Amino acid sequence: MGVTDPAGPVMDRDEVDRALARLGAEHEAIETSLFALQDHAGRRLLEGAELTGTTRERWAATEAAITLLWTCFDAYAAALRQAREIRSRRRWSSQQDLAELTELLRGESVTVTGGSRLAEAYSLAGLVDRMNDLYASSLDMVVTADAVWSALPARIDLLAAELKRTRDLAHSVGVRPGEHPAGDDLARITRTLTRLREDVVSDPLGFWVPAEGSSAPGGGRPDTRVYDREARALEDVRREIDAVLTVRQDAETRLVRLRDVLSRADRTLAEARTARGEVLAKIAATEVPVVSGPPTVLQEQLAAAAEYRRQGQWHRLSPLLESLEAKAEDELLRARESLTAVTAPLAVRAELRGRLDAYRAKVSRHGLAEDPLLIERYDAARRMLWSAPCDLRVAEQAVLRYQRAAAELLGGPRVSGGQGPEDRKGEHA
After folding, report:
1. The pLDDT value given to residue 91
2. For the chain, how long is the longest CA-to-CA vector?
3. What is the DSSP string of 240-280?
4. Burial readout 384-422 (b: 16 or more C-beta within 10 A, e: otherwise)
5. What tens digit of pLDDT does each residue of 125-151 get?
6. What's the pTM value of the predicted model, to 2 decimals?
7. How many domains does the chain have?
8. Which range of residues forms the domain containing residue 159?
9. Is residue 7 in some structural domain?
10. Is 252 found in the same domain as 242?
11. How many CB atoms lie within 10 A of CB 266?
């Protein structure tokens, strides 16, 4: 839409003709814009929709503005026709005609009824400004509503279709509301999307974020925060359903692996119990930890997992399998640690035996195996280490005495308590 020139002195014929040409062009532009607004898809949707909230209030005001806009346009067109009639009276307009035309074209000669006041006088330029304001606000309302309706309902429908597919898939693996958290999430997403679509259709302006600093009609973007949140929630549920489907495919393999891990843990505990009896019989004066039996709760949960698999209750099997796998690995680790703790005294005895034989081999290489002191101390240490029950503390002292005697004869460093033999390159008898 154009803007007429401000008022001035009495116009001559050329100024009048130029003004009429300009006003005629403005009339055509305004008429084109009004018909475009009349035919706008958003306006037709607004007329036929059951609106609520902000949109209903804005549309009531916009309908009144559009009605006033056509009233202004009709008054503008009537004033333009009147000016053309005056100009067409004679080829060379008289001074009186020019004064009348100046008043009509530049003065506040157009009266418009309606709006906030019963009647209001405008100049043609002022009337164009008024129509520009009415048109901009009306177009902003229509374009905004149309932008939301074009963007959100279709996306909501696509997400709802994906939601239905996910819900059907969830039902096939037993994920239902009240039985599984993912089923509850699907029910909540369904309710939210249904309500969101209804709200978007009835109150599109409630889902519009205006652009900061923009005065153009429709400046802004649709508010998709609720939609985006539910889309992310559906994606999370879909991943969880995929995990349940994976459980359905891999359940037998995972159950077999679980049985194997728990069986190894049981065998290790049985070995630890056997070893404990051997330690108590062969090692004296030592504390041997008690070996607990396998936890029956894990076997009960394993049986429950197998039952879930037979019944196809995959949504219950999935978390149970994850929990069992972690507990089974912990149980195997506990069994191994128990075996290590129980057999520690036997390991100490084996280390002392190895140390004693290593020193005896060393003194033999140097021709000292027949030394009476060494023979005496070796025999004493050996009797302690190869007899049952073996007192490890006494046996260790006997091994240390043998080491010290050997070290003195070999001319090596003195052996302190708890320290093993020290071979050095280049030693000689």
Report:
1. 75
2. 156
3. HHHHHHHHHHHHHHHHHHHHHHHHHHHHHHHHHHHHHHHHH
4. bbeeeebbbeebbebbbbbbebbbeebebeebeeeeebe
5. 889 999 999 999 999 999 999 999 999
6. 0.57
7. 4
8. 147-210+219-247
9. no
10. no
11. 17
Question: Same domain for 34 and 106?
Answer: yes
Examine the pLDDT at 330 and tell me if it is beyond 60: yes
Judge if 356 and 267 occupy the same domain.
Answer: no
Distance of CA 285 to the CA centre of its chain: 60
Most confident of 3-12, 173-182, 395-404: 395-404
Cα angle, residue 206 at apex, residues 202 and 207 outer, rounded to 5°: 100
Alpha-carbon gap, residue 18 to 77, rounded angstroms: 17
**Type of residue at 228:** D
Query: Residue 199's pLDDT is what?
Result: 95
pLDDT-derived band at 213, boundaries 50, 70, 90: low
Looking at the structure, tell me whether residues 186 and 223 fall in a common domain.
yes
Residues 29 and 99 in one domain: yes
- On the question of pLDDT at 204 being above 90, the answer is yes
> Looking at the structure, do residues 202 and 94 belong to the same domain, yes or no?
no
- Assess whether pLDDT exceeds 80 at residue 286: no
- Are residue 128 and residue 182 in the same domain, yes or no? no
In angstroms, rounded to a whole number, what is the distance separating the alpha carbons of residues 323 and 286? 38
Q: Are 288 and 342 in contact (CB under 8 A)?
A: yes
Is 252 found in the same domain as 237? no
Give the C-alpha separation, 173 to 5, whole Å.
Answer: 75
